[in-house]
Amino acid sequence: MNALDTALHLAANGIPPLPLRAGKVPFGNCRACARNACGGRPNMKAPGPCTCPRPCHAWAAATTDPTVLRSQEWARAWRQAAAVAYHPGAAGLTVVDCDNADAIAWARETLPATRTVPTTRGEHWLYLGTMPSANGVRHGVDIKSTMAYARWLGSGTGTMAALPDVVRALTAAKPAAPVPIRVPALAGGRECRHRTPAYLERGIAMAEQRITETSSGVHTAVYRTFLAVLSTHGRCGCLTEDHIARLFTAAQAKGETARHCTDAWTNAHTRLGL
Hints:
four-stranded antiparallel sheet
């Protein structure tokens, strides 16, 4: 089943899909919507709504309207899509994303049994009900529900249970501090022939410092810093999720929202043709 067929199948079952590019990231905003000049989308923390017919705005573009999914404006995205994602909150769901073996062991010991879906490195635990999304609620565990997207990896196995209080408590107990969004690095895994680990570490530290020392024009500074990092390391596969999380955390400490960080990263990818 190709990406569009998968999306139509999801939409018919009340699950709003969206296309993802390589690297498991959404397609960047179009020129009219770049940097949210259009005013955003419904339920986003910005004026709106945006009436752009393209798959802009990441999770907020997800839809169950088959006419939109089949439209000419979406056709190019489906042809280039590396994966299909969906907006769990809009489908009335919460995904507990367990990203490693320790996280899975914790879930099996702590959470009520529910439907599970195998992922590349772990499992998605699906519950009926919605809640605010959050990343890093504990080591290797993210919550994806409202204002977030999750990859569609199949329907999974098991009976879906109601969202338990133990999951809701994971975000309620978090301190009010910047939380880095986990944005996967580019696939490739090729060895960086001209960069040593020390060079990369120094580059990330300098990028963090550049963001931290910005006194004005934070949006522009963050975007340009992301662009500089990706132009040097975006194609060789040496960036890790930890590196990217450090950049996002530095940006959020300067007042950038998680959405602005994601937009800046996506736009930098698009600018470099990655």
